[in-house]
Amino acid sequence: MSATVVTITSGKGGVGKTTATANVAAALAAEGHKVVCIDADIGLRNLDVILGLENRIVYDLVDVIEGRCRLRQAMIRDKRLPTLHLIPAAQTRDKSAVSPSDMVRLCNELRHEADWILLDSPAGIERGFRNAIAPADIVLVITNPEISAVRDADRIIGLIEAEEKGPARLVVNRLKPEMVRRGDMLAIEDVVELLAVDLIGVVPDDEQVVVSANRGLPIVLDGKSRAGQAFRNIARRLQGETVPFLDLESGAGFFERLSRFLRSGGN
Amino acid sequence: MPDWLNRLLGRKPDSAVQAKERLQLVLVHDRTDLSPAKLAELKDEIIEAISRHIEIDPQAVQIEISQEGREQRLIADIPLRPRRRRGR
Ligand SMILES: Nc1ncnc2c1ncn2[C@@H]1O[C@H](COP(=O)(O)OP(=O)(O)O)[C@@H](O)[C@H]1O
Ligand SMILES: [Mg+2]
Question: Could you tell me the pTM of the whole model?
Answer without folding.
Answer: 0.88
